[in-house]
C-alpha cells in the first residue's frame, strides 16, 4: 500500500506475524529505469522482511524487465505487477488498472518480466474497469503469460474504494486457474477471513492493518490453529506503537520518519475514548520524544 507498507511497517508486521508475507508499496518501473535515487531508496529492506515481495507499476515491458532484474539482484523474493491501481494520476498515464483494458500490453509486460528473472512474478488486479465481464479471460491470460500467482481485489476500478468487495467472481477465477489465486478487499477480522477464503489460496489484507497490525498476528495464529490474544488497551499496544516509530526513525531519520508516523499514530488511537485532543497533538508531532510523551501521558491518565 503506497504511503504505508514501507520497510519500517513491513518489519513491524513481520515482528508480530513472522509467517505473514509482506508486499512493498508500489514502485515505478520507469523511475527505476531512470535511476531515481528516491525510488531506489524505496527498495531498501531488512532481511527480516523476507520473503519480501516488491510491487512495480508502469507500462513499458522493457522497464518492467529491467526493474525485475534489479530487484532479483537485490535479493527480493518475488515481483508483483500492479494492474489494479485506480488513482487518476496512475490511470491517466496508462499505468495500474488502465492495463486491464489493454490485455495485449498487459501480456507483454508479464512475459517480459517473467523472462527477465528466475524469481516468481505475480499480478495484482481489480475485477475490471467498469464491471467484471472480462475478468476470466484476463485471468487466463495472466496465467498463460507465466505469472505464478494472481491477487484480485473484489472491486472494479470505477468503484475506487466505494461499496464492498465482491468475492463471487474471484472464486470463479480460482476454479479455472492452476496458479494460486489470492482474494483481497475488506478483510478486517478472523471472521471475515473465514467467510471469504472459501476455495482461494490466500487472502491479502491492507487497510485494516493500519492502526491494527496485530490483526496479522491474529490471522496467522488462526491459520496455524494457535491461540492469540491481541492487545486491547492502549497501554498494552504502546510498546509496539513505539517500536513502529523507532523503526521509522531508524529507516528514514527522525524528521521524515516522525512526520510519516503521524498518520499511523492517529490510527493507533482511533476509537480510544477522550483521545480527540491527543489525536490533534499526535498529527503535529515533530520528534520521537514528543510522540512518546504524549502517548505515555495519555495512558497514565487512562489508568488513573
Ligand atoms: C492508501 C492506499 C494505498 C494503496 N496502495 C496500493 C499499492 O501500492 N499497490 C496495490 O496493489 N494496492 C494498493 N492499494 C490497494 C490495497 O492494496 C487493497 O487492494 C485495497 O485497499 C483493498 O484491500 P483492503 O480492504 O484490505 O484494504 C492501496 C490502498 C490504499 C487505501
Helical residue percent band: 40-55%
Average pLDDT over all residues: 97
Question: What's the helix count?
Answer: 14
Radius of gyration: 20 Å
Structural class designation = alpha/beta
Present as ligands are: flavin mononucleotide
Q: What strand line-up does the widest sheet have?
A: 1-2-3-4-5-6-7
Label the overall shape. Answer: globular
Ends apart, CA distance between termini: 38 Å
Proportion of residues in β-strands: 5-15%
Which stretches are poorly predicted, pLDDT < 50 over at least 5 residues? none
Number of strands: 7
- Summarize the biggest pleated sheet: 7 strands, parallel
Reading the helices and strands in chain order gives HEHHEHEHHEHEHEHEHHHHH
List keywords for this structure.
about 300 residues; seven-stranded parallel sheet; globular; about 50% helix; alpha/beta; 14 helices; binds flavin mononucleotide
Amino acid at each position: 500500500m503506497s504511503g504505508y507498507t514501507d520497510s519500517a511497517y513491513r518489519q513491524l508486521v513481520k515482528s508480530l506475524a513472522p509467517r505473514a508475507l509482506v508486499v512493498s508499496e508500489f514502485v515505478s518501473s520507469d523511475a527505476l529505469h531512470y535511476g531515481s535515487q528516491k525510488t531506489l531508496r524505496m527498495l531498501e529492506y531488512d532481511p527480516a522482511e523476507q520473503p519480501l515481495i516488491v510491487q512495480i507499476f508502469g507500462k513499458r515491458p522493457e522497464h518492467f524487465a529491467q526493474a525485475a532484474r534489479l530487484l532479483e539482484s537485490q535479493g527480493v523474493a518475488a515481483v508483483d505487477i500492479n494492474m489494479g491501481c485506480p488513482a487518476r494520476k496512475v490511470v491517466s498515464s496508462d499505468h495500474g488498472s488502465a492495463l486491464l483494458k489493454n490485455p495485449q500490453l498487459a501480456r507483454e509486460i508479464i512475459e517480459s518480466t517473467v523472462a527477465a528473472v528466475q524469481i516468481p512474478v505475480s499480478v495484482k488486479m481489480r475485477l475490471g474497469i467498469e464491471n467484471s465481464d472480462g475478468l476470466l479471460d484476463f485471468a487466463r491470460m495472466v496465467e498463460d503469460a507465466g505469472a505464478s500467482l494472481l491477487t484480485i481485489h473484489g472491486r472494479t476500478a470505477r468503484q475506487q474504494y466505494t461499496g464492498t468487495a465482491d468475492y463471487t467472481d474471484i472464486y470463479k477465477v480460482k476454479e479455472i486457474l492452476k496458479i494460486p489465486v489470492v482474494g483481497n478487499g475488506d478483510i478486517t477480522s478472523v471472521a471475515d477471513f473465514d467467510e471469504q477464503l472459501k476455495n482461494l489460496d490466500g487472502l491479502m489484507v491492507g487497510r485494516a492493518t493500519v492502526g491494527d497490525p496485530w490483526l496479522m498476528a491474529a490471522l496467522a495464529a488462526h491459520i496455524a490453529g494457535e491461540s492469540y490474544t491481541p492487545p486491547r488497551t492502549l497501554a498494552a499496544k504502546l510498546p509496539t506503537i513505539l517500536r513502529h516509530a523507532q523503526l521509522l526513525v531508524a529507516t528514514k531519520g527522525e524528521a521524515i520518519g516522525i512526520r510519516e508516523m503521524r498518520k499511523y499514530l492517529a490510527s493507533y488511537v482511533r476509537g480510544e475514548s477522550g483521545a480527540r485532543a491527543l489525536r490533534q497533538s499526535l498529527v503535529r508531532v515533530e520528534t520521537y520524544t514528543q510522540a512518546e510523551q504524549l502517548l505515555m501521558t495519555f495512558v497514565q491518565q487512562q489508568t488513573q
